[in-house]
Amino acid sequence: MERSSVNPDLHIKIFCDGANLTDMLSAHREGLVSGFTTNPTLMRKAGILNYEVFAREVLVQIPDAPLSLEVFADDFESMYAQALKIHAWGDNVYVKIPISNTLGESSVPLIGRLNEEGVKVNATAVLTREQVEDLSRVLKPATASIVSIFAGRIADTGREPAPMMRWAVELLKESGSEVLWASPREVLNIYQAQECGCHIITVPPDMLAKFAVMHHKDLAELSRETVLMFHTDASRAGYAL
Questions:
Q1: Residue 166 pLDDT > 60
Q2: Which residues are known catalytic residues?
Q3: What pLDDT score was predicted for residue 212?
Q4: For labelling, which of 17, 50, 213, 234 has a CA lying 20 to 30 Å from the CA of 140?
Q5: pLDDT for residue 7
């Protein structure tokens, strides 16, 4: 695994997760990340009106880093058609396929079909061990693939995601798939993902900026800065006793 230019102790790959081209270009230019992911929800929040125009612009500006782009159809034949179209946009493209459609019907057969046809797939919205097991049976090392496990959403339910992430890394070794820790909630998750053996973690731009400032920050200095913040805010508010 590669070393991070931000912190040489890190060897997990950091992918920027978002849909703001300015943020993406800044992260790429500064060497903070080694890849990018996005999805229809992020694109809609960013005000993207034309999916293909945005995707192609990103690929023109960033032709040398992996970019995961997600299908948005809900039936499997339409997903397949969209996947082939997106795949054709560039050699650095990974096609994100949700692990199921909105009815809960498994996308694993489609993912296996695309894998066999040489389409680099990023299986996304994975949350259960059964889903990982199903993927392990269809993903083959001849075609690069990513399995995005939403560790942050698992943690949101009160469950500790680390045991599952370690297990998934081991199970998927023979498939050649990279395991991605998705939906991080705090900078600590970057180090947790690395300790679990994950190959990649997605980080949104705001957390990426926080990581660049906060990683291994001196805690005594952070304590002083916190006290200063309290004091400054009290003074600005004009509080008196």
A1: yes
A2: 96
A3: 87
A4: 17
A5: 52
